[in-house]
Design a protein that fits this description.
Helix content: 10-25%
Oligomer: single chain
Distance between the termini: 82 Å
Strand content: 25-35%
Order of helices and strands: HEEEEEEEEE
Shape: elongated
């Protein structure tokens, strides 16, 4: 048999197979008449974590050091005047720097460490603007109850984080900001 006699039936077989399976290279994109169009791809959204990550078990800090941990909101705020007081409370001032809109909700946490870098305990401060988060008015809340917080407009908000129980005097603290909502 000559090569042309073998090639012709092979080419015809490939063309027939392409027509039957719809694998043509035409403008139809290989679809046959009446084939269903693929539906739109649904968008995927993930819910936010229900709880912030636990603080590190070990964190070496200088005596009296209070620093803001890098997190999803740390580039949007500025913390000034942060210090550890006589009752181991962390005080300071937080201002939103990303824009000038009003602060609606805030959660600020402090992880307290001893001179050897061992985690002693934590405390938190919660703020919710009137009408948000089910709060009645502006509320600042540390570990030992709620009190009136100053308005969080423009210049920011003063905070005080009182730990529940540490068992020792902290050498330093690391602040984290798991919740920040502003208009």
């Amino acid at each position: 048999m000559s090569p042309s006699r073998i090639t012709a039936p092979a080419v015809l077989a490939v063309l027939a197979l392409a027509l039957v399976t719809g694998c043509g290279g035409g403008s139809g994109g290989g679809r046959t008449e009446g084939a269903a169009e693929p539906g739109p791809v649904p968008s995927v959204s993930f819910t936010a974590p229900r709880q912030a990550a636990a603080p590190a078990a070990y964190q070496k800090l200088a005596r009296g050091e209070v620093r803001l941990e890098q997190g999803p909101f740390s580039d949007r705020v500025k913390v000034t005047g942060a210090a550890i007081g006589a009752r181991s409370e962390v005080t300071g001032h937080l201002a939103v720097t990303s824009d000038v809109s009003e602060l609606i909700a805030l959660e600020l946490r402090a992880a307290y460490y001893d001179a050897d870098g061992k985690l002693l305990g934590t405390g938190s401060y919660h703020y919710a603007e009137e009408g948000h988060e089910g709060q009645e008015g502006r509320q600042g809340q540390g570990a030992h109850g709620a009190g009136q917080a100053p308005p969080a407009e423009g210049a920011g908000i003063d905070f005080e984080i009182v730990p529940a129980s540490l068992g020792a005097t902290p050498a330093g603290a690391v602040l984290s900001l798991p919740v920040l909502v502003n208009e």
